[in-house]
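Appendix B. Chain record.
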Amino acid sequence: MHKKISVCILCVCTVIFSACGMLPDINISTNTSEATAPPPAPTEAPPTAAPPAAAADDGWAVYTNPEAGFRFSYPEGYDVLTDETSLYGWDNAVALLYDGGQSYDAVVQVWEGMEELEAAVPGRLPDMAIFEAGGKLISLFNITGIPEFDAIAATFTLIN
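Structure tokens predicted for this chain:
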């Protein structure tokens, strides 16, 4: 009786673990005399991480902030949020790029200088595009690692 219960529990656990992807892939072969060749390498080049820099005439929308003195283009599917409620909790934020997911995707912030910026986001400078305008720094921070980030940053233009 205990053996049947143990076998049933083992079967249930195996089903649960395999459904969750927690079991390793195991290849069992009864023929040990034949070697198998590795699968062929893919022949296609991997896709690029981001499209080339786009302009508004490529169908991208344009966000302009005359107070901070910049504009940038962004692809369809994103919204730029500038309301006080959305910006709450983001130091010096003037705009958030959002695609509707669980987190904002990028934030635009205006800083007095590099010292203030580095103190606010230590170790995250590689995730940013930083522009100098009128003695201040404007950072575009890639929060979630969006693949279009470099193309968006390439459209960033100072207007003052």
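Further analysis of this model is presented in Appendix C.
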